Amino acid sequence: MLARVRSGALMGIDAVVVECEVDMALGLPYFNVVGLPEGAVRESKVRVVSALKNTGFELPQKRVTVNLAPADLRKDGVAFELPIALGVLAAARLLEDSAMGRYLFGGELSLDGSLKPIKGVLPLAVAARDKGFDGVMVPVANAAEAALVEGLTVFPVASLRDAVDHLKGERLIPPFRRGSPSAATSGQGAGADMADVRGQPELKLALELAAAGGHNLLMCGPPGSGKTMLARRLPSILPAMTFSESLEVTKVYSVLGLLNESHALVQERPFRAPHHTLSDAGLVGGGPTARPGELSLAHHGVLFLDELPEFRRNVLEVLRQPLEEGVIHLARANQNLSYPCRVMLVAAMNPCPCGYFNVPGHTCTCPEHRVFDYHARVSGPLLDRVDITLQTRPVEYHHLAREQPQESTSRHHRERVEAARQRQRERYAAEAQVHCNAQLPSHLLRRHCVLSPRAERMLELAVRHHGLSARAHDRLLKLALTRADLEGHGRIEETDMQLAIDCRALDRRGWLHSNTHGGAPPSRTGGGSRGVASFPPRQPLRAPAETPQRDEGASSRDDAASCAGGVGVPL
Predict the structure, then answer these.
(1) How far apart are CA 133 and CA 388, in angstroms?
(2) Which of these, 341, 387, 340, lies nearest to 211 by C-alpha position?
(3) What is the pLDDT of residue 372?
(4) What is the SS3 string spanning 82-123?
């Protein structure tokens, strides 16, 4: 007799419905599993046979063949053991398979017949709803996770005997009732607040700007200046996730088995801070099973890379495309997978190996070539994808000596960020896949970015004399638009553009040369790399009040003179 039971196989963060076909025929007793099974699936036949015997079922001595269709799809994991066991009982005429056609099954069997939790239950439940199944039968520990899908009946199963009795109608399992979901901790530390950071008001405003628009951020400064402390408090000022965003993040954590019965839904924005010994597969995903990496675990949250130059070059370079597209594509010999990775990249680094290059009150002990080599570890194309680059300074003593410091709290910053994000949601209501300024595609920039004449002139001068790329031009517009949203402007004003330029327009090699040799920066005609840190500028760039007609050569000479000392204003 042939029996069919449906289950699911993971493909990235989605599930594909798999038919478990069980055939029982005359012949020497043998149990075979076909259909491209991996190691754990091939071993499942031993656990299934032991679980059936220890549950009290006597199987006939026949040849059992289990086919997992589609046969060309790789089957991995232990979720097929419950459907295989039920299919064997149906093929042995110990269970009617008509009742099993309405459900999707998944679960790992112990040798005594009890069910253990499995990975990827949320994608399995989504596939069951999309394919028109009435419900799913999953282990008790995974029931809360499956119940996140609306319009689907979830039956929590404790053992193989309970599943059989329910399908026979002898002892029905009550459907799982979802209560109010509890938030899973994201790892940034309980009670982290911006008020804990003494001083550094400019950096707090920069973090607020990054959070309001979802911009990438790089902090460069000496040890002990608060870079890591500020970065770990960034999630406390980010806006709350919507339910759809929470569901996307939860699917990634479900595939990796990082959820539990008490925390079935991730409601706080993730904060991931991997060590600098991380491999490229650990960052973007991969390995034998092509599992998600740290980049996908930080989806809709913050990826913090501390000691940025200490990461291996190949690890940093794989960040380029995912930061632009918000998705990572993994192409392997037998499958192509895609994982979401819409993240805010926050990085921190020292100005030199010893940490005190160009820091007032300290002497740098590094040779000049080591300073250049240290900065060269981070490529210009990667820095071009960072919107805000800032220098941190040592905290002054009077900030540390205060008994009751009057520092702005995370609640204060979060209210301003929420107001700016609300303006962005209203602006992009008709745009699909655009939720904040950092996600705004290039072809929509000029539609939503309205500049004052002086702001337009200031942007033109910055692009012309700092050799900014087209990507840098677009990011300047997005950053200025975020500043306008924070201040409630209807259009981008001069002060908004001035701050955006100050956050990213200095030339990296030019800054290093000017501080090591004490001379003027080298020529920018070659389109050098972007600035690592936005140090205090010598001359702010301001658009002229009037722009009379004159020849192009005179215009270039005058504009170059106005930009000679750098651009921008302090935060």
Answers:
(1) 48
(2) 387
(3) 87
(4) HHHHHHHHHHCCCCCCCHHHHEEECCEECCCCEEECCCCHHH
The helix (H) or strand (E) run that includes residue 148 is none
- Using CA atoms, how far apart are residues 514 and 521, in angstroms rounded to an integer? 5
Smallest CA-to-CA distance from 222 within 49, 70, 353 is with 353
Is 195 within 8 Å of 564 (Cβ atoms)? no
Give the pair of three-digit tokens for residue 483.
């500043």
- pLDDT tens-digit series, residues 339-383: 999 999 999 999 899 998 888 888 888 998 898 899 889 988 898
- The dihedrals phi and psi of 84, each to the nearest 5 degrees, come to -65, -45
**Long-range contacts of the stretch 163-168 (C-beta < 8 A, 24+):** 163/82, 163/86, 163/105, 163/137, 164/55, 164/86, 164/89, 164/95, 166/137, 167/86, 167/95, 167/96, 167/99, 167/100, 168/95, 168/96
CA atoms within 13 A on the CB side of 459: 27
Beta strands in 166-265 (DSSP E): 217-220
pTM: 0.84
DSSP state, 288?
Answer: T
Q: Does residue 78 contact residue 42 with C-beta atoms inside 8 Å?
A: no
The 10s digit of each residue's pLDDT in 422-445 is: 999 999 998 888 889 999 998 888
Output the CA angle 509-510-516, nearest 5 degrees.
85
With beta carbons less than 8 A apart as the criterion, state whether 101 and 167 touch.
Answer: no
